[in-house]
User: What shape does this take?
Amino acid sequence: MNVKILDHPLLLHKLTQIRDEQASTVKFRQMINEIGGLMAYEITRDLPVREVVVKTPVTKTTGYTIEGKKMVIVPILRAGLGMMDGILQMIPAARIGHVGIARDETTLQPHEYYAKFPEGLDAREIFIVDPMLATGGSANAAIDAVKKRGAKRIKLICLVGAPEGVIAVNAAHPDVDIFLVSLDEKLNEKGYIVPGLGDAGDRIFGTK
Ligand code: PRP
Ligand code: URA
Assistant: This one.
């Protein structure tokens, strides 16, 4: 399986706090944003940098700046929005695309209802963000949506994944690297990740 597990102690600690069914909406929102920021730090490790000269108050020296066009963060609506503030604290200049995908509760099939992206996806690094990778249907639909508009360098950033979802994304998009904090055990009969953390969108937005 092409998947990288980010098992930094801070990530493990915060994930455990939001797995707790007693976590309040306030706590869930705060933690999932903090997780987004920490994941952003880890997944941008390999961004190319270019040497630049900078004049400090003392002398000239060589420093580094991130090379290339601004990267694009694409939250899958709704739940992906929950990680965005944290990610943008780390990468404030990122461009943002949106893709709305709802999973049919009975068939578990994804349905795209909204899409809007910045120009020039072909020349940018794209980070698709969604806390939950269950069957992989929503992630695959989001990847299809950006590829259809020219995207070539794509990473999928999720918090919790099921093996079924990782396998499905690997099969459809072997060029896309997947990042998780936890690869959980399985899906249950309703398509929920076990042990998971329940319905991420409902817990972020307080809709249940
Ligand atoms: C959830 C979740 C993912 C998707 C994962 O969204 O945020 O987008 O399900 O499931 P999959 O891997 O089987 O496609 P949902 O469709 O419930 O929408 P919401 O974010 O609006 O709650
Ligand atoms: N979507 C969620 O929000 N949670 C799951 O466990 C599966 C899909």
Q: What stands out?
A: Residues 76, 78-79, 101-103, 108, 110, 130, 132-139, 165, 191, 200-201 surround PRP (ligand 1) (CB under 6 Å).
